[in-house]
Amino acid sequence: MDQFKDAESYLLKSFICYEQIFTNLGKLEEAKTNIVDTYIEAYHWLVFVSVVLGKKSQALLVSEQGRSRALSENLQTKYGLQGDATKSSLDQEVCLLVSGTSPSFVVVSLSDKYLHLFTLSSLTPLVVHPAAMQMTDEAEQWLSRLKYLINRVICDGNLHVRQNRDDTFEDRSLDLDYDDESEHQHVLTELARVTLGSKGSEKTNEIGGESSGNRKDKSVAKMWGGGSECHLATRSPLPHTTGKPKASDEGTSGKVPQEHDEDVCSPPPISSAETLRGSGLLKELYRILIEPTEKKLTQDEVVFVPEGVTFMVPFGALQSPDGRFLSEKKAIRFGPSLTTLKLLRECPEDKHCKRGVLVFANPRSNANVFTRRNGADVVKSFHERFANLPAASKEAIKIREILPDVTCLIEYQATKNAVMQSLEKGVGVIHIASHGDSQTGEILVAPEPRMDKHDIAEKEEYLLTMREISSCQINASLVVLSCCHSGRGQIRAEGVMGLARAFLAAGARSVLATLWTIGDNATLEFMERFYRHLASGLSTSASLKRTIWDTISMNDKYSHPYYWGAFVLVGDDVTIRNGADVVKSFHERFANLPAASKEAIKIREILPDVTCLIEYQATKNAVMQSLEKGVGVIHIASHGDSQTGEILVAPEPRMDKHDIAEKEEYLLTMREISSCQINASLVVLSCCHSGRGQIRAEGVMGLARAFLAAGARSVLATLWTIGDNATLEFMERFYRHLASGLSTSASLKRTIWDTISMNDKYSHPYYWGAFVLVGDDVTIR
């Protein structure tokens, strides 16, 4: 154990040096990305040593320091948020991230010698699940097996969609670099390329920038498999494959392996025994990546923060031993890092639009383009080179039917200039339905119309690249990349350097992307379901889960996980307003809370000298005037907003029944509370999410803090949704203990104890764990 302590000491010193170098690079984003690639191996070793020494928090924070550093700094600047890379601040940020109604988080830490899974949530402590691997050659073989499984799932997904086509099938792949060839040869080429990995140039296929010849035996080369693209290449022999790569595989040719190449091993055949369901690929990945953490995933949503090859794992499609997919049990989301997720959650509401939709689909053009044939450039028309996607056009029209305020750029309208100009418009949703490139994730757009029918368009005229997206100023809440491979890109320490990351860096809050080939008609059906759920008011994560559930339950050919497993949600979980404002009555818009009225009456029975403002009496003016009265306890039982912690009050009575109240008339905000002069000893906010608010270095900028700032001595608030009847019982117990002479802290403890001991449905921690006491411990006379 002493050698591990010594190693920790040396690694921590190197850690400080690397961080200083990173800081000194200032705003040079590309240089920062490169430098993290250079020293990521030292971070991996420090994670390993920290786990061995039992320092699980340190291990998680060190792992976090190596993820999406440039993206995090970009978002801090863009949203005007404070950032600090120190260990203590990161520790605090992680704690704040998982507070309240947060999902369960699974952080994957992957190196050439280990796989660690960190799980954390608001209801469970940090747990690290080290895989059963030691510093032996067996670890490398085990990781090779993991890479092979991921490779094979992606590969099989592509092939299944292609081979099970019908007469209406059109896939949305954009393969720019392979020669024209028969479909059969193309399928074999893809299988070989995905299973074995493209053999990139010496300059790009290693993380640290050294040539593959110099670094082929080093751990980073083994870890990243020798390939810079998301084909997840691996140079070491893959367990359970039918062939072995020869020594010539170590060459640096950038050519895509062909069926007749002698130095390419034969890919495993696609047999009925090796389909996803038959071979248990998804079940084996479930056993490796989910089973160790399964009991800790207590929330309805799970957010995965992958590393390395695990960025390509379709976590939602992983299958438990009983045959159920993870997406059937949990809502699934991805995050580049914990820090990035926290920044996206904290960004000010006015930074993103929630209304309006921009759709561009199925670009067409009268231009000509170059394509490769037998090694030479050949001129073809745009229509010949890029297949028409009629279902993508229908997809755009269907979205326009489901959501209001939709702008569509379809076919010849979907030019690159029109798309680039439209991307920066203030819309809530950007939807792109086009071809996607399997190597880079680049997306096809239409070049500008040609006057000369013989004119040839260059690639930069009809490809939308990561660099171009990153240069935009986008404020969309959601970007949907309904294209093949749109979640792909170069895998580096920074993460997947593809279009999904580019849209996040440009300002999008959430991105729905794909990991492999998607069929045109299958995607049309999937997207129609997704947008109907989104329009119903569900969040993006919940909408995706419901869409997958609906797709599976249809029990048709599209129920196979190859058709829906490719879709992954990256970033925050957002809700889109369904277009134009609709007028509803106050009673329709806000549910009645009869137990809250009973709660007020019950408090009046328990405590003397109680003034009640119930239902129509609880107007904003009456509440604001009453708050400044000299009372010992203020109790508010109403609806609370999950984002800001704002509380519902009644607007002033209307003489005209058609009169419309503005938000400021029926919402009690933090600013309004802060302006009051309150001298209450205790404020009880018996509302959902009343302990929530924007998390900043100052703390949680919400109503609980506002009441303390206004003069309250103690505040009882909630972190998540609370049920009406459950809260009635809880509050009755709390006030009886308070009336008996116990302090607020002791009363809360006794109330929780009583609730647990009742051993009924309200004994579950979800019903009482939301209540938190902030401030002093006071006693009410």
TrEMBL record:
It holds the Pfam family CHAT. Coiled coil: none annotated. InterPro entries: CHAT_dom. Residues 199-272 are annotated as: Disordered. Residues 281-572, 589-776 form the CHAT domain. It comes from the Eukaryota. This is CHAT domain-containing protein. It comes from Nematostella vectensis. The lineage of its organism: Eukaryota, Metazoa, Cnidaria, Anthozoa, Hexacorallia.
